[in-house]
Amino acid sequence: MKARIKWVEQATFLGEADSGHAVVMDGPPEHGGRNLGVRPMEMLLLGMGGCTAFDVVHILKKSRQPVSDCVAEIEAERADSDPKVFTRIHVHFVVTGQDLDPGRVKRAVDLSADKYCSASIMLGKVAEITHGFEIVEG
């Protein structure tokens, strides 16, 4: 896997992934940015959220659960001093479907957290990561 990050101007960078997709990253105005894109640390959380949500949906579909929506809501805390690494991350899944089995949803969340989500397992080496879920009928 490869990625390329190109400085555009001030605190704006263009990240290009091996897949050919690109994303703009920018800093806040107080650090010379113009608020044109997500911050790099936000990108880490988005990547972890995408990784784990993908797993949960995939596992639920494989177990023939009628999932129609999945949202991963993430809250994170960072260290007060440099390097301001993540110290705590909580992922709350809101899973929607018809007659979803809570045991299977819990199993999907646990499997993602403990076995499949490379991003969250990697971030778990430096941050305490917790998970929760709720089921919405629909």
Summarize this entry quickly.
InterPro entries: KH_dom-like_a/b, OsmC/Ohr_fam, OsmC/Ohrsf. With 138 residues, the chain is of the alpha+beta class. Helices cover 32% and strands 38% of the residues.
Notes on the structure:
The chain is an alpha+beta fold. It has 2 domains: 1-38, Single Sheet (N-terminal domain of TfIIb); 40-137, K homology (KH) domain (GMP Synthetase, Chain A, domain 3). Helix content is 32%, strand content 38%. It has 3 helices and 6 strands. The protein has helices spanning 40-62, 102-116, 118-123; strands at residues 3-9, 12-17, 22-26, 67-78, 86-97, 128-137. The strands form 2 sheets. Strands 1-2-3 form a 3-stranded antiparallel sheet, with no helix packed on it. It starts with a strand and ends with a strand. The mean pLDDT is 97.
How would the blueprint of this fold be written?
Blueprint: E1 3-9, E2 12-17, E3 22-26, H1 40-62, E4 67-78, E5 86-97, H2 102-116, H3 118-123, E6 128-137
Parallel strand pairs: 5-6
Antiparallel strand pairs: 1-2, 2-3, 4-5
Helix pairs in contact: 1-2
InterPro entries: KH_dom-like_a/b, OsmC/Ohr_fam, OsmC/Ohrsf
Protein name: Putative redox protein
